[in-house]
Amino acid sequence: MNIGGGSGALDIDDAELGLLANGFSSITFGDTATGAVDIGAYTAWNDPLNFYTDGSTITVSGAQTVTSSSNANFTFHDPTTLNVSGTEIDTSNSNGAIVFNDAVTLGAATMLEAGSGAITFNSTANGGQTLTLNSTGTTTIGGAMGGSTPLTSLTTNASGGTSISANITTTGTQTYNDDITLGGNVVLTVSSGNLVFPAITGAAN
Fold first, then answer.
1. Which of 74, 137, 191, 204 is buried most deeply by CB count within 10 Å?
2. Model's pTM, two decimal places?
3. Alpha carbon of 77 to those of 53, 134, 179: distances in Å?
4. What CA–CA distance (Å, rounded) separates 48 from 66?
5. Partners of 3 in the beta sheet?
6. Contacts by 8-14 with C-beta closer than 8 Å and gap 24+?
7. Are strands 27-29 and 49-51 parallel, antiparallel or unpaired?
8. Other CB atoms closer than 10 Å to residue 69's CB: what's the count?
9. d(Cα 51, Cα 71) in Å, to the nearest integer?
10. Along the chain (205 residues), what's the average pLDDT of each consecutive run of 10 residues?
11. Taking a C-beta distance cutoff of 8 angstroms, is the pair 106, 83 a contact?
């Protein structure tokens, strides 16, 4: 499936996406019988979005932006590859959540912008790339990051808070500009660089 200029047998281009009127409670692309999904660049999302496959990869190959009048958010329910260098997904206009419910692979240096919306990783994230997570809400790392392929670095912004309940491994610096809450016994590993944070709380700190 091709959405907004990606590649796939079923092609939904920007003009067709523009026919989706603002006001849906949610919009779902794919289901448990859908093969790989490729999401090209699109800058006018309006409503909450869900992406599903049959376990095949969802590839975000173009930057995603929501409109200022929207309540759009993004939930990826199957393995997802982030292939845009720079701001990959930006929901700051809607303060919408960005949620990954399955494994994430970083194919490029990635930044996620959620405004006051939450950023949530419910599964693993791997890839030798930088990852920047900007949310003045809660950033949740619920699955191991860098367990099989260490991230280059991990950075969170200064507002909000970061909840960590799984190990994180980077080759370079981990910079947490907001307070960290630990949800369990975790190991933060930096092979070359620094571990920077203002405060850590939680029973397992």
1. 74
2. 0.95
3. 8, 21, 28
4. 10
5. 12, 39
6. 8/35, 8/36, 8/37, 8/38, 9/35, 14/42
7. parallel
8. 10
9. 17
10. 64 89 94 93 96 96 94 98 96 98 98 98 98 98 98 96 98 97 95 92 67
11. no
* Sole residue written with tokens 């448990």: 32
The partner residues of 175 in beta bridges, in order of sequence, read 155, 196
Residue found under tokens 């026919």: 19
CB 12 within 8 A of CB 4: yes
Torsion, Cα 35 108 114 158, to 10 degrees, reads: 150
The full length of the chain comes to: 205
Helix-, strand-, coil-residue percentages of the chain, each rounded to 5: 0, 40, 55
Question: DSSP letters along 93-152, please?
Answer: TTT--EEE-S-EEE-S-EEEE-TTS-EEE-S-EE-SSEEEEE-SSEEEE-S-BSSSS-BS
**Pair of tokens at residue 146:** 């860098």
Closest residue by Cα to residue 195 from 176, 174, 178, 177: 174
